[in-house]
Amino acid sequence: MSLAGVVGLFRGKPKHAVSADGRMALADHFRELRARLMRSLLVFVVLFFVALFFYEELLDLILEPYNHAREVLEADVSTEAYVKGATGPLMLQLKLCGIAALVLASPYWLYQIWGFLVPGLTAREKRWSRVFAAVAGPLFLGGVALGYYVLPKGLEVLIGFTPDGMQNLVEFGEYFSFFTRMLLVFGIAMEIPLFVIMLNLAGIITGKQIGAYRPWIIVGTFIFAAVATPSTDPFAMSILAGVMTALFLLSEVVARFLDRWRGRRATGTDQWADDEISTL
Fold it and tell me: Where is the signal peptide (predicted)?
């Protein structure tokens, strides 16, 4: 394959005429998808090699919650982290740097997904999806940061169950899986109230309906936190459930405000009763 052919894999330029409304031939859609995937893969590979350069710093970041818990439990429990097998250290480095590259490249590959989907959206859908994208990122990162904050306490509780006279050995592969699940659960949980607001914007649910089911939503939130939290300790569960409950209540307030705002626009008046059903 020539250099021009390789460059063409990353461009994905349509070979057929594009209609006025942005419609393309099916082959051109696949060509565009291939180009976006190739560009995302290239960014991932570059960031993977960058992560290899900062491997020691990444390892310290991952192990910090465990080291903190070990220092707290030092007088009561003897615990050590270890890597299993002859190929364990190599697989550890590849896995850790791969996850780091995937996370660091997420703004770019999410942008590529957005760019591929945008031509098929209406103007209104594009506007609200931009709002969704702008809020979803900080919420997810905030959830990840919260999970990282409560992780040492959860490890203290779990490792603290080690019987007297026994040593606790933590295999790093299992610890890393536990670490990523914990942060993902907290990050995704922060997105749920945002989806509630998006459903309200789509006219599927109203703020009044959310309020009617508020007690059940709160109970369900605590059940979700108890089941989804990998550490299973009450501290992490309570933190996750408390933050999610606060965000749910905030989403209800926002949904009621949006209902009232749409009601005023529909009727041309500011007189809209709180208990009145929206015309939507």
Answer: none
